[in-house]
Every structure is written in C-alpha cells, then in structure tokens.
Write a structure and sequence with these properties.
The structure is a single chain. The protein is of the alpha/beta class. The chain has 2 domains: 169 residues, 3-Layer(aba) Sandwich (Rossmann fold), CATH 3.40.50.1970; 180 residues, Dehydroquinate synthase-like - alpha domain (Dehydroquinate synthase-like, alpha domain, Up-down Bundle), CATH 1.20.1090.10. Helices cover 46% and strands 18% of the residues. The strands form 5 sheets. A 4-stranded parallel beta sheet has the order 4-3-5-6, sandwiched between helices. It has a 3-stranded mixed beta sheet with strand order 1-2-9, with helices on one face. A two-stranded antiparallel ribbon has the order 7-8. Helix 3 crosses helix 4, helix 5 runs parallel beside helix 8 and helix 10 runs antiparallel to helix 11. The two termini are 39 Å apart. The mean pLDDT is 97.
Length: 359
C-alpha cells in the first residue's frame, strides 16, 4: 500500500492506494468517529463490494442506500433519497457517510455529507479509474441541473480516500478507457514526462497490467493532491484541471446526461482545446497530432457529436463555473505539459474551432 496526503492544514487527509484494501478493516474503521455509518453506493457496485464494508462495520449502526447507476441520476431528486435515509434513521452530525462507487456516487455522497446538518464526515472509496485518479480527490461534490453539469455543489473534503486496485477488475472496458481521459489530462496540463510515459505504455494500461495501473493512479493522485494543496477552492491553478471540460460539459448537457461518459466527453473537449490552442499560435501541429493520436490509441472518442451545432455549443458553454459576467473562459495549452489559467478567447477563433475541428 502507498499513502499520499492532500495537505490542507486541519483538513488534510490521506489517499491510500494498493490491493486488498477493502479487506483491511482498521484502514476504514480508524477514520470513523461515531457508531452511525451510512453507505451510499449504486446497484452496479453493491453486488461486488458492499459485503466487504458491511463485514468490516459489524460493530456500527449501518444503513445502506443503493442508487441507480448513471449520470442521469446525479440530481437533487436522488440526493433527497440520501437525506431521507439519514433523517429516518435519526443520524446525528457525527455520523459518517461512506461513498462506495464511481464519480457519480462520490459526488452525490460528498454533497449529501456537506449539506446534512451543515456537514458530516465522509469517506471516499472510488471504484472506477476516473474516480480514483480525479473525482474522489480534492473535495468537489455536487449534482447536475438540466441546464448545466455540476452547477450545484460544494467544496467538502473527505476524511480519507481508499483506492483499492482490485475493484478495477470488475470495471468494464468502456469505463476503464473513459477514466484514462482524466489521466492523459494530467500529462497535458503539468507533467510532460508522464505524457511521454503514457505514449509508450498505453497498451499496458489497456491490458489492465496491475503495476501500470497502480503507477498511473498514484502519479495522477499526486498531481491532483499538489494542485489542491495549493488552491483548494479553484481561485487559480486548480482551474487547469478543467482542460477540455467546458466543451465536454456542453456535450454531456446537450446530448443528455449518460449518452457520453464523462471521460468520453472530456476527451472530445481536449481535442477542441488543443485545436483552439493551435489556432492561438501556441500548440504546434506535431503536438496536436500527438495529443489526438494518444486519445485515439486509448480508444477514446475525438469526433464531436454531429447532433450538436455551433450555436448550441456556445449557448451551453456560457453556463460554466469558470466564466465571468457571461464571458466564456477556457483552459488552453501553451504546449504539452503547460496549461493556461482560464482565459477569454477571441470569439472568431472559438467559432473556427467549433465549425472546423473534426478530430
């Protein structure tokens, strides 16, 4: 097992990465301070891993809520089901909420924990690549709205993150590949040597080589932890983690939540951001080709959905947390390994990218 730390003074916490972690009772129990525990999971994950937690928590008052699986259920309606369970069972403000699942479960569980009695402790146990390398770390929680993704939420840090590599054995190939979009993002925004490593070793990741996956998750978490420690509330450098996300969120919203997995939409968004970065005179043709090549080799989509037009894209992109006074602001690339902070871009260049980029 490897242990990283997100250094946030009194809110600091560990990230545990390794195998057979769900079987280590003390690893979990040591972060629970009261007798009441609520496990939030979904119907896909529960049959595989819920029993491990229940066995480890036999001495606690444990309730479980199983949500339906999918981005389309990441709504206030289903958050209320979590609150119903907490209230019906008279859970106090010292109760611990455990989020067992992918990014949707983690975001919803964390948001419920942030809101219930103005904040109860929670633990992240991510079960997808995307959740292990990105969404479980850093305290971003929330739900979607029909008009915009992740527009309702809170910054709320967990007590710990337990990333058990063994849970990836049951992850389907589409989810595995989608998670790698967030991995590639780290190489693009700040870690050029990691990007080069990915170019050489992507086949090992797709073959689910355990040592390669462990390395990728550890390095990604380390990148995320360093950024979050410097900028917890996304007032500066943390915004670079959103490379491709403004485009990607527009795709998720416009096409209907769940049509594209988050990582798939982000992959297309990265292609858009790279194209615009090239039009700005920063990214070379060679680097543009390297980025698209790695995304394609990974099996990620790079072609925009034909169902969305430019006007729809621009309309949806104006609903984004990085925007100021209705002005679209984007994360772009100066080069592979160097991202900009959110910047306003020339509307004409943005429209050229939206009209002409084809992956």
């Amino acid at each position: 097992m490897k242990e990283l730390r997100v250094e946030l003074k009194e809110k600091s916490y560990p990230i545990y990465i390794g195998t057979e972690l769900l079987m280590q009772k003390d690893l979990l129990v040591n972060h629970i301070k009261s007798k009441q525990v609520l496990i939030v999971t979904n119907v896909t994950v529960a049959p595989y891993y819920l029993s491990y937690l229940q066995k480890n928590l036999e001495q606690f008052q444990v309730e479980t809520i199983e949500l339906p699986d999918g981005e389309q259920y990441k709504t206030l309606e289903f958050i209320n089901k979590i609150f119903d369970c907490l209230l019906e069972n008279k859970y106090s403000r010292n109760a611990t909420l455990i989020a067992l699942g992918g990014g949707v479960v983690g975001d919803m569980g964390g948001f419920a924990a942030a809101c219930y009695q103005r904040g109860i402790p929670f633990i992240q146990i991510p079960t997808t690549v995307l959740a292990q390398v990105d969404s479980s770390v850093g305290g971003k929680t929330g739900v979607n709205h029909s008009l915009g993704k992740n527009m309702i939420g809170a910054f709320y840090q967990p007590q710990c993150v337990i990333a058990d590599m063994d849970v990836l054995d049951t992850l389907d190939d589409r989810q595995l590949v989608a998670g790698l979009a967030e991995v590639i993002k780290y190489g693009l925004i700040r870690d050029v040597e990691f990007f080069k490593w990915l170019e050489k070793n992507i086949a090992q990741l797709l073959a689910r080589d355990k040592s390669a996956l462990t390395y990728v998750i550890e390095r990604s978490c380390n990148n995320k932890a360093e950024i979050v420690a410097e900028d917890e509330f996304e007032s500066g450098i943390r915004a670079t983690l959103n490379l491709g996300h403004t485009f990607g969120h527009a795709i998720e919203t416009g096409m209907g939540y769940g049509t594209y997995l988050h990582g798939e939409a982000v992959s297309i968004g990265i292609g858009y951001a790279a194209d615009l970065s090239k039009r700005m005179g920063w990214l070379s043709n060679v680097d543009m080709e390297r980025i698209i090549s790695l995304l394609k080799t990974t099996g990620l989509p790079v072609n925009p959905p034909k169902e969305m037009n430019v006007a729809q894209f621009i309309d949806l992109m104006t609903v984004d947390k990085k925007n100021v006074d209705g002005e679209i602001r984007l994360i772009l690339l100066k080069s592979i390994g160097e991202a900009t902070l959110p910047i306003s871009v020339n509307q004409s260049l943005l429209e050229q990218t939206l009209y002409n980029y084809a992956g």
